[in-house]
Amino acid sequence: MTTSRAAIGLGSNLGDSLAIVRAALGRLADVGQVVARSALYHSAPWGVTDQPPFVNAAALVDTALAPHDLLAALQRIEAEAGRVRTYRWGPRVLDLDILTYGELAVDAPDLVIPHPRLAERAFVLVPLAEIDARFVALRDALPPGERAQVVEVAPQ
């Protein structure tokens, strides 16, 4: 069975976000073998800023699922956690994003890989660079003030 290494971003800002993200990290075993997990971080909301802060993390998963199948599986995990899609960048119980999928590039209406705003978001790059050295330079290129808004709250 052929596998690809996917980087998954996790976030939550509704309910007990620490517990929700921890549970979601555990549920990633449903889509493949989790090979690395970041610490959990608090971060300010991005895009729509009038909402609670987020808990974010990242994980590397070796998966046999094709990209769209992985997306569908992650959306099932979100729905089972109580996610209701509202408006772009709004509050959410759980958000699971495919950040990368091996070296593959996908540009479909429902899925873009690598994630199109990956290089702009400290709340993604700080946890991702912790577990994947390829992203350290991107993290370090962010303005220091943005990086400082992503604060570790719990180890992996």
Question: What does this protein structure show overall?
Answer:
- By secondary structure, the protein is α+β, with helices and mostly antiparallel strands.
- 29% of the residues lie in helices and 29% in strands.
- The protein has a single domain (4-154), classed as Alpha-Beta Plaits (2-Layer Sandwich), CATH 3.30.70.
- Strands 1, 2, 3, 4, 5 and 8 form a six-stranded antiparallel β-sheet that branches. Strands 6-7 form a two-stranded antiparallel ribbon.
- β6 and β7 (111-113) form a beta hairpin.
- The radius of gyration is 14 Å and the shape is globular.
- The mean pLDDT is 92.
Keywords:
156 residues; alpha+beta; Alpha-Beta Plaits; 6-stranded antiparallel β-sheet; two-stranded antiparallel ribbon; 5 helices
Provide the fold topology.
Elements: E1 4-12, H1 17-27, E2 33-37, E3 40-43, E4 54-63, H2 67-80, E5 95-101, E6 106-108, E7 111-113, H3 122-131, H4 136-141, H5 144-148, E8 151-154
Antiparallel strand pairs: 1-4, 1-5, 2-4, 3-4, 3-8, 6-7
- Name given to the CATH homologous superfamily: 7,8-Dihydro-6-hydroxymethylpterin-pyrophosphokinase HPPK
Helix content: 25-40%
| Unreliable runs | none
Q: What is the averaged pLDDT score?
A: 92
Task: Please write the string of helix (H) and strand (E) elements.
Answer: EHEEEHEEEHHHE
How far from one another are the termini? 29 Å
Question: What is the CATH T-level topology?
Answer: Alpha-Beta Plaits
Q: Total helix count?
A: 5
CATH C-level: Alpha Beta
Find the structural class using helix and strand composition. Answer: alpha+beta
Could you tell me the radius of gyration in angstroms?
A: 14 Å
Strand count: 8
Largest sheet: 6 strands, antiparallel
